[in-house]
Amino acid sequence: MTFLVERLAELRRHLDHLRMLRPRVRGAESLDRDLSLHNDVLFSLFTVCQLVIDIAGELAARRGTWSRPRPDPPARSAVPPDQRGTRDGGVPADASAPPQARRTTQPATAV
Predict the structure, then answer these.
(1) d(C-alpha 96, C-alpha 94), whole Å
(2) Would you state the pLDDT for residue 60?
(3) Structural domain contains residue 18
(4) Of 65, 86, 91, 99, which has the most beta carbons under 10 Å away?
(5) Nearest CA to 55 among 2, 4, 11?
(6) pLDDT by residue (tens digit) across 53-109?
């Protein structure tokens, strides 16, 4: 069988299993009381989600839609020049350091 046919068969199997579990799940309290039922439902739901993702990826790859270039995300706003090297909007990042340990952001000038 091909990858897609195998995934579809597995999806059908898990959906049928969830339909069989439906009468046992009356609500959240039934899942809280029965850990085995809770794990069974959770695993089948997780598997169904993963299979849907796999099938969608396979179909997209066959159509060639996965290789379309995406538009670049919008650029983040630049930090204003007066706040560069600062945190919390104006407090120097190393303000708590002793004066001799502080880094200078200004270029050194000849005296």
Answers:
(1) 5
(2) 87
(3) yes
(4) 86
(5) 4
(6) 999 988 888 887 655 566 666 666 666 666 666 555 555 555 555 555 555 555 555
Examine the pLDDT at 1 and tell me if it is beyond 60: yes
Q: Domain total for the chain? A: 1
In the chain, the largest separation of any two C-alpha atoms, in whole Å, equals 86
Q: pTM for this structure? A: 0.55
Token pair 């969608």 in the structure block, residue: 56
Which DSSP letter does residue 101 get?
G
Separation CA 100–CA 102 (nearest Å): 6
> In which domain, by residue range, is 46 found?
3-67
Contact yes or no for 27/37 (Cβ under 8 A): no
Query: Does residue 79 lie within any of the structural domains?
Result: no
Rg (CA), the chain: 29
93/102 Cα distance (integer angstroms):
9
Which amino acid would we find at residue 43? F
* Token pair in block for residue 23: 């009468």
